[in-house]
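Folded chain entry —
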Amino acid sequence: MYDFSNFGFGTRAIHAGQEPDETTGAIMTPIFQTSTYVQESPGKHKGYAYARGKNPTRSALEQNIASLEKAKYGLCFSSGMGAIDTVIKLLKPGDEVIATQDLYGGSYRMFTKVFEPLGIKFKFVDLYDASNLLKHVSDSTKLIWIETPTNPTLQIIDIAAIVENVKGKNILVCVDNTFASPYLQNPLLMGADVVMHSATKYLGGHSDVVMGALCINDTALFEKLAFIQNSCGPTPGPMDSFLVMRGIKTLHVRMDRHCYNGKEVAQFLKSHPKVGKVNWPGFADHPNHDIAKKQMKDFGGMLSFSLKDDNIETAFEFAKSTKVFSLAESLGGVESLISHPASMTHASIPKEEREKSGVSDSLLRISVGIEDANDLIEDLKQALN
């Protein structure tokens, strides 16, 4: 297989991990829809024995995603939560995780409802100032779990500073890179140990597949994660792997449009008299904007905001009034979506905890798609009237 590691992002997105099918010359990696593989003799096979362990379509995708993150290894899972679950299974009872205070509701639910009862401790900490981490690190701390930008308030966390603060302490740093995508940000290059993606979002890009991914450079760590993946079985099927691989081929093109449209929409909302605070890392007054400029290529297509009429009923009415923006969970697809985090993606987080991180009952989150920007703005304008 040709090595595309030194090529540009767009070339890697289209070619890395893939080559024409040996049998037919098909330019697209085939969907190897099989559960098992014929062996030449017991234990002697061509690298594939049972599809939970390995599948050629999934293997091509794992190599492709690893290339985008500048990683040696990639692992794919049946969902983003399956990927997170696998990372937490590296730990044992008594170990401690320090997580971003502003955190995806599904991650918070897994941490507190599934793993906390099993004896793993979780602290949710404001990491806007990376030095704040040091106040909370203990001898039991084994993992730092961060999102940047965070979901849904778009807080920016200094990845390199977090890594520096735990250097030499035998603590893993894992970054949920879903909001940025590997096109805008590569945490492994800043010293992170693991990068996690909900590949459902920007990597797939078309709202037609659910998948997760991990990218790793350390061989021993990769082997531990791969062992858990195979043993516990949260692996995606070949059709889903094919869909994400197809989606990735246009990731760089889509992300450029997401970023452009995101900027246009953010600036419109900020200037509208009925809109209150707008969270978008591209604004010069956004907290840690300078960090975002340093560690991201651009500012992405995600933003959140509140109306000046700051109550939940008004937020609901606005969310139901858009025509081009669809009221739905998830993000990162070609179509624009609007959601109400407190009742949708973050409903599992207690109200008091949500509000500590800025997730009020009136906050709305927007995933800006790749439609014509003027149409998106006109849609928001009519919903605000």
Remarks:
- Residues 9-248 form a domain with the Aspartate Aminotransferase; domain 2 fold (CATH 3.40.640.10).
- Residues 69 and 182 are 6 Å apart (CA to CA).
- The mean pLDDT is 96.
- The chain has two domains: 9-248, 251-384.
